[in-house]
Specification:
two-stranded parallel ribbon
Length: about 180
């Protein structure tokens, strides 16, 4: 088995470890995950907000993830779309990602990609839709966060955000904020 790990790309190995961590030892079925917005496993890759039937998965920062990490994490991405993902970096908003990648695939497919990636949030510049990548943050609350600008630091932003989302959602936000 150790031979297998030597040949796996780092992103695939991380995904494998996250998947295995969600399993109950001695059982062949994953533990139930009723909260799709679980605490991130690493500071750079918070969990996906995907249906519980898919299982826990780490999201990747679209601006910093390597090509091999993206290919390993996103089903059926392919080299052509990987090139398009990388060509438009850095992404500053979710709308920019949707607009650029939407030139090549349907909006449904773009939404599918968003289950695996996130666009980093700049507390003093990101728009409401980009902020709404934070699980539990509604549009009205995102607009309130924008109205509260400027934030002295990411920690200042996160402390104000703590009034609007759960501790688990705040942990995800911490990984998303630049």
């Amino acid at each position: 088995m150790s031979q297998l790990f030597r040949f796996l790309p780092l992103g695939a190995l991380a995904l494998l470890l996250v998947t295995v961590a969600g399993c109950n030892p001695g059982s062949e079925t994953p533990q139930s995950n009723n909260n799709a917005n679980s605490v991130p496993t690493t500071g750079s890759a918070p969990p996906a907000t995907s249906p519980a039937t898919v299982g826990p998965r780490a999201k990747l920062n679209i601006n910093t993830a390597s090509g091999s990490e993206l290919l390993a994490a996103i089903p059926n991405l392919g080299n052509r779309m990987l090139h398009e993902f990388e060509e438009y970096r850095p992404y500053r908003s979710v709308q920019q990602f949707r607009r650029e990648i939407g030139k090549y695939v349907s909006l449904d497919q773009v939404a599918e990609y968003e289950k695996y990636i996130f666009v980093p949030i700049n507390p003093n510049e990101s728009d409401a839709q980009t902020m709404q990548q934070i699980p539990g943050l509604e549009e009205k609350e995102a607009q309130a966060m924008i109205a509260g600008r400027p934030y002295a630091s990411a920690e200042d932003f996160l402390s104000k955000l703590a009034d609007k989302v759960s501790p688990t959602e705040l942990a995800v936000a911490r990984a998303y904020v630049q």
